[in-house]
């Protein structure tokens, strides 16, 4: 098989807080190939978000290595990070946390282009309109403010902002868990169609196995900071090997599809 797009090897993160240590991530290793969706699942506190944030350099790692396109990430300086961050973007559960309420949606989507030195304002505006349409919004929405949109529409804006730099990998941190089930399926379908169109890879972080089973190619099950089981999505859901995976599967309702299967 070709070289992975992302290789995470023995990653660890320990937080020190008021005299005690929290081993949030302990020796986590996995790979993601171009165009693939790799999901990290597990209950709250299992270390999923910390893994994602550490890969992105938003949280410094305590140990381990991360390679993106064969280039080591964790040892990079700020300038090197910035050039690489073009290729790795993130979508959060609550897009309002990244969308400035005083800025128009058009500006929020355009901003990454400004940060990454696209000087031609007309080119930037054209890209924003294309992006809005691509995520199912209207060109006129560029002049509106985040508070004027529903949760699902705001997630579409977050996706447009993440996608405008044409990244190779998007870390999706609980991207649909704040949304109603009917809206969840729309957003998941949008993510999957964008993946097909742009060959995107996703690191998909979710506590919801019903969501994961419809989007993931491979799944890593996290428990207390470690990946306790990893496998192809189909096999993991039908023949779980680890006791904790079986426990998680028991806790979900019988297959209620939230999105069209791949
Ligand atoms: N900045 C921080 N300082 C101290 N401890 C932290 C910090 N961030 C996370 N933790 C701890 O690390 C552990 C893993 O948290 P993390 O958020 O990565 O889990 P998670 O699986 O993503 O869960 P959730 O979905 O609830 O965010 C938890 O015990 C959490 O309290």
TrEMBL record:
PANTHER family, A to Z? D,D-DIPEPTIDE TRANSPORT ATP-BINDING PROTEIN DDPF-RELATED, TRANSPORT ATP-BINDING PROTEIN
State the Pfam families in the record. Answer: ABC_tran
Tell me the protein's name. Answer: ABC transporter ATP-binding protein
Q: Which SUPFAM superfamilies match?
A: P-loop containing nucleoside triphosphate hydrolases
**What positions does the domain ABC transporter occupy?**
6-249
Please provide the record's keywords in A-Z order: ATP-binding, Nucleotide-binding, Transport
One GO term of the biological process aspect: transmembrane transport
Entry GO MF terms: ATP binding; ATP hydrolysis activity
**InterPro entries per the UniProt record, alphabetical:** AAA+_ATPase, ABC_transp_ATP-bind, ABC_transporter-like_ATP-bd, ABC_transporter-like_CS, P-loop_NTPase
By sequence similarity, the record places it as follows:
Belongs to the ABC transporter superfamily.
Q: Which organism is it from?
A: Rahnella contaminans
